[in-house]
Design a protein that fits this description.
two-stranded antiparallel ribbon; about 500 residues; mainly alpha; about 0% strand; globular
């Protein structure tokens, strides 16, 4: 491993140097900091040109200017954007922070949804559900992202904000949505006619009950989870997680997960007081999340069972879900004052924060989250289509392998065959795709950021290039190139972890 990392890091540094050198030459040729002065009609035009040449050191050889910039950059001085007078360091810090928020949310959600639905589609090959997912995948993949973004601004922000003025769904609409929900679950689960009818009825009843609860409690005006919804959603997650990772017949894993939910609900009110007193930063929240997961793992360890690791994994994932629900509930508790501060239109259509909003930590978190909704949905819809196709095709290939037939011939349950033998190998192609996709997004979702006026890395690059400011452009290129090289190394390591046939020290 050490030998592999050493070789890859040295090769990466050489590649980075060559790429940055070539990009500096190309950027220097493509921008003209004197363009506005050459078109000027000022009487002291030549004097202004000479002053700018001296300011930007343009009379020095481009190679020497590159090494001068590189020396300053690696020693912690990325320079100043000469046109705006802003230091490049804070510009990059704010831009990459905004982009990382967007990339993290979009990547995690699109991966979770895309891989899950893709695998279900593969397991239900040639069914109505499979054809539906194929159609939606190709449709979303072919749509331009700017068009999706504009539609979301119109219906996801403006339309939803208008709905919040009088948030009432008619019972006809609720019934139609419930019927569609039951139909979707029936198509996804499949099985015999009796099983389809049962699934349809359960899906219809669950969807109708959820929408009726939201309607009768006026949830749209004051959205909160509370201990009851945390308990219901946490218990549902416990059953789902245990069913996939261990099987519901593994009572110890199921009881460990349900005990984790019970502990989370029992600590709901004490944690509320803790939030009010000591919350100061994201690091503290992350630390509390780690403690929650560790508690779930410990509960799984104490329950034990034939396979202690399965119980620990199920309870740990359940603890993460419950902790997330409690965190979301705390954020939603400031929804009413936040919405009132924005004139009853809480879903924004541009930017990454509301200027001069004020408020405590939770108001700031809610504000950042609402600004993430639309651009995140845009990226999710595009990436979801790709990940669904990748996971579906990979799962179909894996499920036709000899070792899958051998596992079934040995009498292993279908859940074990799919989860332990099929799912793990399905991740192998994604292990090389996802890291590169993440770095591509960190470079800036230029179109999405432009539509939503989000000051991320893509917007910074475009604005600096238009302003002929080489320092921000080169800082952007250096960071994205570095991340791309790191992503390539990480992809190789993940590939070796997922596929034991690969040896990095070979």
């Amino acid at each position: 491993m050490l030998s592999f990392l050493t070789r890859r890091v040295l090769a990466g540094l050489a590649t980075l140097f060559a790429a940055i050198f070539l990009m500096f030459l190309l950027v220097d040729r493509s921008i003209d900091p004197l363009a506005d002065l050459r078109e000027s009609t000022a009487s002291n035009k030549q004097q202004l040109i000479d002053q700018r040449i001296e300011l930007l050191n343009l009379d020095t050889n481009v190679v020497l200017r590159f090494f001068h910039w590189l020396g300053n950059f690696v020693t912690g001085d990325p320079g100043v954007a000469w046109r705006t007078g802003q230091e490049v360091g804070p510009m990059i810090s704010h831009a990459i922070g905004s982009t990382l928020q967007l990339v993290t949310a979009a990547t995690l959600l699109s991966l979770l949804l895309g891989v899950t639905i893709g695998i279900v589609s593969a397991l239900r090959q040639y069914s109505s559900f499979d054809y539906l997912i194929i159609f939606l995948s190709f449709l979303l993949y072919s749509l331009p992202s700017f068009w999706i973004a504009v539609l979301l601004k119109q219906w996801g922000a403006i339309g939803f904000n208008d709905f919040l003025r009088d948030p009432v769904l008619s019972w006809v609409v609720i019934t139609v949505i419930a019927l569609l929900g039951g139909l979707l679950w029936m198509l996804a689960v499949g099985g015999s006619v009796r099983r389809r009818v049962q699934t349809f009825a359960l899906g219809l009843a669950a969807t109708f009950a959820m929408l009726a609860y939201l309607q009768l409690t006026d949830w749209w005006s004051d959205p909160q989870l509370g201990p009851i919804l945390v308990l219901v959603l946490g218990a549902a997650a416990a059953f789902a997680i245990t069913g996939v990772s261990a099987g519901l017949r593994n009572r110890r894993a199921l009881f460990a997960s349900l005990s984790t939910v019970a502990l989370g609900v029992a600590l709901y009110f004490p944690v509320q007081g803790l939030f009010d007193e000591i919350v100061e930063s994201h690091l503290l929240i992350a630390g509390m999340g780690v403690v929650a997961v560790a508690s779930g793992v410990l509960i799984g360890f104490l329950f034990g069972g034939p396979d202690r690791g399965v119980s620990m994994r199920s309870a740990g994932i359940t603890a993460l879900v419950v902790a997330t629900l409690v965190f979301v509930d705390q954020v939603l508790q400031v929804w009413v004052p936040y919405s009132n501060a924005l004139g009853g239109r809480p879903i924004p259509t541009f930017g990454d924060r509301t200027p001069n909003l004020g408020g405590n930590y939770w108001v700031q978190v809610l504000d950042a989250s609402t600004h993430l909704i639309l651009p995140t949905l845009t990226l999710i819809l595009v990436a979801f289509a790709a990940y669904t196709r990748y996971s579906r095709s990979s799962m179909l290939e894996v499920m036709n392998q000899d070792y899958i037939r051998t596992a079934r011939a040995k009498g292993l349950p279908e859940r074990v065959v799919v989860v332990r033998h099929g799912f793990r190998n399905t991740l192998i192609p994604l292990a090389t795709i996802v890291p590169i996709d993440v770095i591509t997004l960190i470079g800036g979702a230029v179109i999405t950021e432009a539509v939503f006026a989000r000051p991320g890395m893509g917007s910074l690059f475009i604005n600096a290039l238009r302003g002929a400011e080489i320092e921000p452009v080169m800082a952007y290129l250096f960071i994205t190139a570095s991340f791309a090289i790191i992503a390539s190394i990480v992809a190789d390591i993940i590939y070796a972890i997922v596929d034991p046939r690969i040896r990095l020290d070979a």
